Amino acid sequence: MLLPEILQALGGFTGLGALVAATATWRQTQPNHGSSMKDSLTRVERALEALDHRLNSMDERITLLDERAERTHHHLECRIEHIEHDQT
User: Fold this and answer.
1) Which stretches within 1-88 are classed as H helix?
2) φ, ψ for residue 26, nearest 5 deg
3) Which residues, including other chains, have CB under 8 Å from residue 42's CB and lie 6 or more apart?
4) 39, 32 in Cβ contact below 8 A?
5) 32-70 pLDDT, tens per residue?
6) Cα 70 to Cα 64: distance, rounded to the nearest angstrom
7) Predicted TM-score (pTM) above 0.70
8) How many Å apart are CA 83 and CA 38, to the nearest integer?
């Protein structure tokens, strides 16, 4: 009579099915060294952190290149003005 009492406490077979589904879902939220949703999310988070780091690094490089381009442009403008002044 133990099984009927357990089923009744769980709400019948529907409750038992819900318990099994909840257990399977809970297992997916626990790391298992590779195939769980938790492990997948951890890999995605690490990949996003690495991409964020790379994007920040690229942004710093772009800023430096922009500054260098501005200095070069200013230098060339000064040289052109000097040449034009010498020709007059």
Assistant:
1) 2-10, 12-28, 37-87
2) -60, -40
3) 31
4) yes
5) 777 788 888 899 999 999 999 999 999 999 999 999 999
6) 10
7) no
8) 67
